[in-house]
Specification:
transport; 25% helix; transmembrane helix; Pdz3 Domain; elongated; seven-stranded mixed sheet; disordered N terminus; single chain; membrane; alpha+beta
Length: 274
């Protein structure tokens, strides 16, 4: 008996189904009464009738354990860029620094003072700085994308440097401790002067500096409103990202050489940092 159980345990699923049908037929034969002799004779006299066997393929197609559930893939939401509209908020854009993730904007809230914000900062409740361009910014105002542009009066005017005139040379001394202290607070440093790309007819680009705060690093460096900065340590300032890289590299430099135009005159200033 044990050997038979082991043998049955090794049978495949189609073989098990055939055995079930055979056993059911055998049990039905045991339970039904035996036919009488007269019935046997009558059945022999009758013509044989073909008995249809169960269709094995149909039996195999019957799901014994239920119908498998097929999960439908949900359609992924398609990101739709929100339209950008002009902002009605009382926020004035005074200046920008475009340097990738380190970009910043200088704004004035209502009639208050100037403040600097980097991308992702909360300008005021419900207003987040999302994008910084050369002359505009994009904010998220309670889920709506809005744009704030720099007024035309704040854009730099054209300048023409005197070509062929000899450049003036000036030497100055700066305190390293004072320089590092000022450069460690970038948001405050950005509010102490306004830098805007210069639009000129000459071959050199640069940035026009204005609104210098008294006592700031810019004033200590001898810079004046209206100066156009062209080069620092020989590097041409022709885009805001270079200005940001230069800011990071000047923190430990022993000296700084600046080339600028003041009142149409080209000047060079050498700073010894001690």
């Amino acid at each position: 008996m044990a050997q038979m159980q082991n043998y049955v345990g090794r049978l495949t699923m189609p073989t098990e189904l055939v055995l079930v049908v055979i056993m059911a037929w055998m049990v039905a034969g045991w339970l039904m009464p035996a036919p009488q002799p007269e019935q046997i004779l009558q059945s022999q006299a009758q013509q044989p009738v073909a008995v249809a066997l169960p269709d094995m393929a149909a039996m195999m197609a019957i799901p014994l354990f239920g119908t498998p559930v097929v999960k439908k893939e949900m359609a992924k939401p398609v990101a739709v860029s929100a339209p950008v509209v002009r902002s009605p908020l009382q926020i004035s854009l005074l200046g920008t620094v475009v340097a990738g993730d380190a970009s910043a904007a200088i704004v004035r809230l209502g009639s208050g003072g100037e403040k600097a914000f980097v991308i992702g900062s909360v300008i005021q409740p419900g207003v987040v700085l999302k994008q910084v361009e050369a002359t505009s910014i994009v904010i998220d105002h309670s889920g709506r994308m809005e744009q704030i542009s720099m007024p035309r009066s704040a854009l730099p005017s054209q300048f023409v440097a005197s070509e062929g005139a000899p450049a003036k040379q000036e030497n100055r001394l700066m305190s390293r401790a004072q320089l590092q202290q000022q450069m460690q607070d970038l948001p405050t440093l950005l509010t102490q002067a306004r830098l805007a790309p210069a639009a000129g007819n000459g071959p050199m680009g640069g940035f026009v500096i204005s609104d210098i705060v008294p006592g700031s690093l810019f004033q200590l460096a001898g810079l004046q409103n209206g100066d156009v900065l062209h080069k620092v340590n020989g590097q041409l300032l022709d885009n805001p990202s270079q200005a940001m890289q230069l800011y990071q590299s000047l923190q430990n430099t022993p000296s700084i050489d600046v080339e600028l135009t003041r009142a149409g005159q080209l000047q060079r200033v050498h700073y010894d940092i001690r």
